Amino acid sequence: xxxxxxxxxxxxxxxxxxxxxxxxxxxWIYIGIIAVLLGTNIxxxxxxSKMSSDLATSQSNFNTADSSRRAVxxxxxxxxxxxxxxxxxxxxxxxxxxxxxxxxxxxxxxxDAIVKNKNATAAxxxxxxxxxxxxxxxxxxxxxxxxxxxxxxxxxxxxxAVVTHERDSAVTQNIGLQQKAxxxxxxxxxxIRMTPIDLRRGGxxxxxxxxxxxxxxxxxxxxxxxxxxAESGKKDIYLxxxxxxxxxxxxxxxxxxxxxxxxxxxxxxxxxKQVDLVTDQPVKDVTxxxxxxxxxxxxxxxxxxxxxxxxxxxxTVTLR
Length: 320
Hints:
single chain, four-stranded antiparallel sheet
């Protein structure tokens, strides 16, 4: 059996033939790589989008929470302003609030702690709103109490005004009645006579005279008419004698002095005579003598009688 030759024509040995390998499909490899990269990008994009969304949501939630906190803080500030306004404008409010100072202070402490906490939760803010509602409720009750006190004060003022008016009216009426009674009690003098007297034999003998040089005393006589209003008792009658020169005859040693008229003016008088009066009965021939150290002058002498500050009669005599 012959063997095949393993040399070429040129005498070079020939390599044995290898079986041919199929080519790998690079396209699928590339597609796989691209798919992985694309998936990675999609994952990263999705993650980043979610992160951005979460961040935006967190920021929105923060803004909402901060806005809510500021709204609560604004409500709290408004409630405090109402309370301060009541206290500053109404002194009566001090006593009203003083009874609940502890409760108000506790509410304020709790609310302060929440509104000053920038990380306060929605639950915290909800609690703050409830506390502020309680505070506002108390302020409202204070306002109602103040309104009630003011009304009571107004009613009391009006009542006092009515009582004062009624009292003043009663006083005025009483004064009027007293004035009428006083006027009604003023005595009236009649039959007034003023007689110059010449004393002889050491005063044992008297003689009427109109000659100024012989007059030793001036005798005044008068009657007091009956009066139904005047009470019984001693009554003061002031006699005022005016000389020819217009001066009041006066000497303190002989009983002269000063009294007042009904309108409060001073009234110099010559003599004071007390009479015993019985209600609704006249007093007849009341006599008063006036002596003076100096001589009586020629001319007219006027006599005026006063009781309770009112002039009740008068008369005149002339010396020559």
